[in-house]
Amino acid sequence: MRKEKSCGALVYRTKNGEVELLLLKHRFGGHWSFPKGHVEEGETEVETALREVHEETGLTIQLEEGFRQSVEYYPRPNIRKQVVYFLGYADDDRTRRQEEEISEIRWVPLKSAHREVIFRNDKNLINHAKKFLRRKFFRRNERKNPAPAQTDSRTIGE
Predict the structure, then answer these.
(1) What pTM was estimated for this model as a whole?
(2) What family is this protein classified in (predicted)?
(3) What is the tens place of the pLDDT at every residue in 41-58?
């Protein structure tokens, strides 16, 4: 069995007090998902994720410490693919899509993003991101330091 490895990120922003997630429509698969790509020789997982996000979207993101999710699937017979995802915040939300691979880019409310993706792995990743961000924003509010744009758990999704 041949093994492949890719890395990517779930990218979020806050806009008008709501958390939004970046979704890409992949040109060849036709499905909505997240920026990701193959690890190049000598790259770390983090380096790959940051590079792929930038190549596919034009965004530079800040990764959230403590979020790393790995999924595995079999895209073709005798090929096992591992994809490691991080969670990253986009300060600048102006995107530029990589036309060779991406047909559309859009920001969607995190609380309803699971409706846009078709694969169970992607739905699970969104749920992990929601839980992570709820804890993060809750801790921030506890310290009397409000989250960006006064985000609260209702805007993340219950």
Answers:
(1) 0.86
(2) Belongs to the Nudix hydrolase family.
(3) 999 999 999 999 999 999
